[in-house]
Amino acid sequence: MSFSPLVRQLMDALRVLPGVGQKTAQRMALHLLERNRPGGIQLAQTLLQAMERVGYCQRCQTLSEEPTCAQCRNAQRDDSLLCIVQSPMDVFAIEQTGYQGRYFVLHGHLSPLDGIGPEDIGLPQLLTRAQEPGVREVILATNPTVEGEATAHYIAQQLSTLPLVLSRIAHGVPLGGELELVDGGTLAHALAGRRPLISPAN
Amino acid sequence: MSFSPLVRQLMDALRVLPGVGQKTAQRMALHLLERNRPGGIQLAQTLLQAMERVGYCQRCQTLSEEPTCAQCRNAQRDDSLLCIVQSPMDVFAIEQTGYQGRYFVLHGHLSPLDGIGPEDIGLPQLLTRAQEPGVREVILATNPTVEGEATAHYIAQQLSTLPLVLSRIAHGVPLGGELELVDGGTLAHALAGRRPLISPAN
Ligand SMILES: [Zn+2]
Ligand SMILES: [Zn+2]
């Protein structure tokens, strides 16, 4: 009962943030209440707007408050390359390497034991997207984890009948790690050293 | 340009939280957007309410959305003890020791070089509060830092003409530290071992 009900509610609400335990939530709440109310109000308003208005790009499935995202709308990018990643954070990581192609964001990986199947991560949309004119190579940049590898393998099978080069980013990225934690240089190297999985028969 | 404008605004807004840098803000924003929108909306609404409605208790100056806080309204507590602390977090810390008296929260310490004088931390209100019927002992529990000691010393001088026992929490608390980081056992010991600074002449 040391804090008033509304202050306690704020401390509890802050714990939805990843990595924020009781002590950190207390410090955050008191910092905003005692030292930065305008910043706290700004955060509340932006958070509410973002939660209500940010959806998914119709074309690549990344987070976007517009129907299509800036990368998809940018006519300067290379339509022949389509890079498949597991999350919007991975788009951010790969953009740092200077990659200029297109993206498709899966939002997760296949996980049959958890009931997460191809439809749940948007694979039907990917199949359609990969058949659009201009696409020549699909780069599988899922995480170098067991689940990411299995997802890449499944996608490769699904796309194997299409006249596309399928490639996987090179294992310059450390096995068992998460793509977004890899430094830009390593990631650029892995991207440059991608190797074909399946080439068109012709 | 990897994230949409509203997603970037959210990442920027999250950096008002203490200890949250760019990478952590990105993870927090994507976590809420991808995995917990109800939690994000709840946080936004609670944050806005708290920033707009939480004020200060008229009696002890701690954070409270009511005119007087629960500790001040609780008729069971011991009116004879008045414990002076620097922040609402210190009230939380001292409550863990089982202390049953009253509090007065300064919101900082005297800092003449920064232009923070007695009025800025509520010392006139403290002088009034300390003269209310029933108060017999004022416990100075400011931080065991140079500034906290100087503030305690100044308050002791101001209250020295009143018929009160003035005490300082014992230096079981480590010098140079912050009160809220001290474990409950040490703090309970320090509170029990408090020593008189000035006793009434009678
Ligand atoms: Zn897009
Ligand atoms: Zn109060």
Automatic annotation (TrEMBL), chains A, B:
Residues 80-174 form the Toprim domain. SUPFAM superfamilies: Recombination protein RecR (SSF111304). It comes from the Bacteria. PROSITE patterns: RECR, TOPRIM. A zinc finger (C4-type) spans 57-72. Keywords: DNA damage, DNA recombination, DNA repair, Metal-binding, Zinc, Zinc-finger. One of its GO terms (biological process) is DNA recombination. One of its GO terms (molecular function) is DNA binding. SMART domains: TOPRIM. It holds the Pfam family RecR_HhH. May play a role in DNA repair. It seems to be involved in an RecBC-independent recombinational process of DNA repair. It may act with RecF and RecO. Belongs to the RecR family. This is Recombination protein RecR. It comes from Azomonas agilis.
